[in-house]
Amino acid sequence: MIRRIAVLLVCVLVVSGCGGSAHAFAVKAVATGVPSLAPFFDEKQGLGQDAVVRSLPVQGTLQQGDTPGLYGGTKKPTVCDVAKLKRFLTDPANRSTAVAWSGVLGITTDQIPGYLDRLTPVLLRHDTLVQNHDYKKGKATPYNSLLQAGIAILVDEQGEPAAKCSCGNPLRPFKGDASRISVKFSDGNKKWSGYQASSVVAVRPAAQKMERLVLVDVGDPDRGIERPIGTTGKHDTAFDTRRRHAVPDLTGATFGQARKRLVSSGLAVGYSGSAPPSDDSKVTATDPPAGTELRFGAYVRLSVAGGTSGGTPSTPPGPTTSEPTPSGPTTSGPTLRPPTSPAPPSTSTPPTSSAPPSSPPPSSPASKPPPPPSSSPSRSSPTPDSPSVVTDPPSASAPVTSSAPVTSAPVTTSASVTSSAPVTGTPTLTATET
Questions:
Q1: Peptide bond connecting 77 to the previous residue in cis, omega within 30 degrees of 0
Q2: Domain end residue (candidates: 241, 266, 286)
Q3: pTM, full prediction
Q4: pLDDT digits (tens, 9 = 90+) for 111-170
Q5: Residue 33: left (phi > 0), alpha (psi -120 to 50), or beta?
Q6: pLDDT digits (tens, 9 = 90+) for 65-111
Q7: What one-character DSSP code corresponds to residue 6?
Q8: Residue 171 located in a structural domain
Q9: d(C-alpha 152, C-alpha 339), whole Å
Q10: What number of H helices and E strands is found in the chain?
């Protein structure tokens, strides 16, 4: 009996996560329009103005700062008074505040003016995880935070959040596991309407510095905004987000190459799970398939196999300025037809749990022919008025019959089986309200 009790206690400890495997990262919710309890800058001075925005769902929690449509803007020239923040931080009377502020961002106080000149004001279109900072007793106090969609922030040249406009509090990348967070709504930050775990995003730096940000007008989703880096809105140019963009033929490309081509085509990168695959993973299929025309910022989910690791770590890296750009073709136009020949068999290391194993190479004439494609129902094309929302791919244990999800396009029976999209599930997020 004692032995049984001991075994039962061990099982309880493992399940409850006492060993740390189920540790949840505490995250403080920050709602639009709610003043900070410990701001760097007096919010009554009107440094920034938030907007009312409903958070949009994402396909992949970690998104790079150059993702088309990741951020929003308005026709209003200024949502953040950068000049006012610069005057405040360079005033000798605010020396201690400036030291704490610049220390968070890894610069000196002398570098503050030049750094601010390279920041760009935007509005969040997703509930966004960041490492926020309060100003207490002359020091910056970090804490994990979930900023509600509609909050005005400043982003750097690689699209990473740098400061919250209304209070000037510096922001850094979220350092926890985005798939295991516990959101606390308190201090006036009540749980907002429309909050969903599927709408939470954490931002990684773009592979290289950008010259402009491509935004979506939060008041008019059919209007896109091109905003040069370091400008506040006075030099914006508009474009029509309803204009269609064809999904490139990405089969056989690496995940890094595919991501770059999609971004240059005005489309966002989708994937299963809370962490993207490694950049050298081979793309086996896209959903929707190549040739499908989507509006600006719509997601294209990539199915991959292989790679040097099971996926990119879920903790976003710090700000960088020299991250290498994925190699491979980037300027060639997309092929507007589905592939009719199979991709060569993968020669990379065996895939890990983030992607199912690659299918065997095409059979020889003497081999048994592959089974006919499945007759599962086709998916409808995305509607013109909203980004593509794709349901989870088939289970890895189900019989594989196609390298891409079935659509209304004719099925090519001569294409060989490659891989189905990995199933890792939707990140589980919990929320508590005090």
A1: no
A2: 241
A3: 0.68
A4: 999 999 999 999 999 999 999 999 999 999 999 999 999 999 999 999 999 999 999 999
A5: left
A6: 999 999 999 988 778 999 999 999 999 999 999 999 999 999 999 99
A7: H
A8: yes
A9: 43
A10: 5, 20
